[in-house]
Amino acid sequence: MARYFDVHPDNPQQRTIGTVVDGIRSGGLIAYPTDSCFALGCRLGNRDGIARIRSIRNLDDRHHFTLVCRDFAQMSQFVRIDNDVFRAIKAATPGSYTFILPATKEVPRQLLHPKKKTVGVRIPDHVVTRALLDELGEPLLSSTLLLPGEEEPLTQGWEIKERLDHVVDAVLDSGDCGTEPTTVVDFSGGEAEIVRRGAGDTSRFE
């Protein structure tokens, strides 16, 4: 049964954040709010958590998982970014964007796109997410909380708790964070390719 945590959207209680992060470090899978919609998240090397995300969302091995990072210093450990791409991404972050980039050897093989050897990365603009990342001290492996056969992600913490009670370990709720997922931009070929139009403005990449 999932634990439910209600936190303030602008000033999240540090004790609660610490409890949730302890659960993540112990192998837990959480549902948490971001600047685009709710997401599922676990530690980078959590094989069980990755398997549960795949099962919950019915994902195949071509799905791009996202490493949600605190800042560019953390992001640069896991992806290769040349100077031109760095400037383009920096101008758009933090924000509701996911960027597809070539992965470094720090990224576990099971997270990579099987042919491209790429992974998604993002730096969110959300107080609660950033509090989690600050406390965790490493990226949160994530995927949008969009259930199979449904057109929009779940938006209410209580509904997530009700529907995923036996498959996630915790639900962190700070109120409605919208239904629009991130805009996904693929830079793995050097040029910006918009893969998904979402919450982030695409005009800067067109």
Automatic annotation (TrEMBL):
<feature type="domain" description="YrdC-like">
    <location>
        <begin position="14"/>
        <end position="200"/>
    </location>
</feature>
<dbReference type="Pfam" id="PF01300">
    <property type="entry name" value="Sua5_yciO_yrdC"/>
</dbReference>
<protein>
    <submittedName>
        <fullName>tRNA threonylcarbamoyl adenosine modification protein, Sua5/YciO/YrdC/YwlC family</fullName>
    </submittedName>
</protein>
<dbReference type="InterPro" id="IPR017945">
    <property type="entry name" value="DHBP_synth_RibB-like_a/b_dom"/>
</dbReference>
<dbReference type="GO" id="GO:0003725">
    <property type="term" value="F:double-stranded RNA binding"/>
</dbReference>
<dbReference type="InterPro" id="IPR006070">
    <property type="entry name" value="Sua5-like_dom"/>
</dbReference>
<dbReference type="InterPro" id="IPR052532">
    <property type="entry name" value="SUA5_domain"/>
</dbReference>
